[in-house]
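Model it.
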Amino acid sequence: SGKKGIEYRLQDIRRPPLPSCDAVLARDCFTHFSYRDIVESLRAIKNSGARYLIVSHYQNVGKNLGVKAKQGAWNPLNLTLPPYSFPEPLRIIDDLPKRSKCLGVWHVNSIPDLSSNPTLRVGSTSVVDTVFDNVLCFDETEYLASLRFSDGALAMEQDQVVILDGKHCNTSTVFRDILSRIGTVFGLRSHDLSVRLVRMPPGPHIMELPATGAVVVIPLLRGEKELSLQAKPEEEGEFKEPLLLSNGDAAFISADSNRLGDASLLLEAVGIPPGQKEWDFCVVEAEPKVVSSAAQEVSDENALPDNVHRLVAGGDFMLSRDMPGLVDNQGVDWPTRELQPYLSGADIFLVNLECVISGEGAFYDKGERRPYYYRAPSEMVNVLVATGVSAVTTANNHAMDFGADALIEQSALLSQAGIAAAGSGRNVKEASRPIYLRAGDLVIAVISFATDQKRLAASESGGGVFSVQGSPEALGDLAPVIREARSHADLVIVSPHWGGNWREVPHEDIRRLAWRIIDEGVDAILGHSAHILQGIEVYKGKPIVYDMGSLLFDRVSEDRIRYSAFFELLFDKKGIHGLIIHPMKLEPGSVRPANPKERKVIFKLLEELSKELGSTASFIRYQDKLEIRLKPTGTLPRQSNSQEIYERSAVRPLPRALRDLDDANIFLAEAPQEFLPSNAIDFGGGLVVFGARCVSEVRTGYGFLVEVYFRLRDSKGRNWRASLRGKERETGEE
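Modeled.
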């Protein structure tokens, strides 16, 4: 418009978090999006804090395609009709009146919540266990149908059935996401899934059902066509009333219900002209995973149940130093983008926040000769949000890098984003307080502490971290906290920052402390501090991960820090059933799944380090993960609820107003008087440096703080980075 004071940004509205703004203009976007992308975009817009949505709207359209909307096609939407059901727009702006196309303006807060999650339609029948609508969107069913032309098509039977190569197809994140959703919806995460594509001949088709495992039937039909499904149990002579499935719906039939026997399904595509061939449906067959006796003999009572909750945890998560520049270039979701398929459906995602996120405070004397100081600007909270982190531990050696003021501001920023933080606070009572996290109908308590950090410790009246001795004597401080957590939670997890950097084996004092913590009633320990993986042991049936390594760091070299993992606890009201280790490879500023060669290195590393501890943990090796099966010892139900219980679904991007707080701390009207304009250095491109000064004591071999005063005008998209080097005055050496 040319008006001053108006700023425009180009943004992919499908990739949260979005910047806070006054209005989001999405002309023609939804018209070409799939239903799932529309839902995700609306969720991102609502979480951004935007006030208005301006979007293409077709008033004369009488029916929306909804979940059948195809990505990239032209799908005119009347947003006031189902499944969107917006209220009447505040204002209509003519766009193409001849096509009844306009731009509708809505208050973002008035837009109803939509869900792309599958919805239950039919409960148990004589053979069919359940039918869910909208398990897959149109794009996903089209993708599955297209796999018949891919290198993953292993064989074709009579021009009617294509068997897919799971190993080849699993290289696709889309395929993994589809199987992950099916496994989550139907409780098949502990099964091996195989996929067949079926083209039916004209007329009815009878499909025999397997005597073991389970099957999921999903139509791959275009337009208004439907798949008619009739089931006939073994003991009955006729088929039951048909169920009609539309594209992307899913019917689930399980042998575990002991109803299959020689049961069969009568399938027929409804609405297909005679002689027309289509790939009518896919069949996902599920069989319980078979583990060789050489790996571990798993009894039925120790097998993983299907309907378990998931707590995913990672080690050190660093957002300082080079990370803000990398995120500015690549986007907030870039560092952990390749993790997302693994995190879908997790109830809790916990990491150790290895920095302080704040513009407040000043250099804090940690008593170290050459300390590292990790400060991140407030907008880096949104990297946590984009990753899906719902809780962080903050009792570590970097939480107080810039003092209690910075730590307190960080707590406020995380709270605004809906992220729970344990291990630090305004005083020792607050710092030692457990956090409580929702997982279905269960409540999980997380306790965070650091060992031997007396200088950083919170006191009765001063802010800091919850610090204890790195020995069994620490139980005097920990026992009351564990008892408090036990009374308000179904499971208690301790996540300590203990031991020195780069240690491959935990100190014996740390091990004895871990055993005492388990003896006190804790269900699992997930440690960190060394930056590298350490061994795992199972003590009295409870897992102890001594160090989870690092999950995100800006600078990584070709050594042990790069070979890492994240950890997944599987649990229900009976306790913890298993620990899954997903091998990861760190790159500078990002993390990705380890490739086959890297996985072998990580598997061997964990197995050997655990064996060195004398651990009795039995690892089950799969293609892309390690697993430890556990026999739950039972839990005591919580006596009462905490006043504040965090849920992962409540995590949201940081409002723009809070992200702008940093500006107040770094923008000045003019340079200090000691810096003469005549001495300023013009680097070109609008960058002028006026000078620098030390604001803390400078001692040889110790860290110190430097302030640089500069002006940057008209950067034209350039990114600047400053590097300061000191020289000895007498020798000139750096």
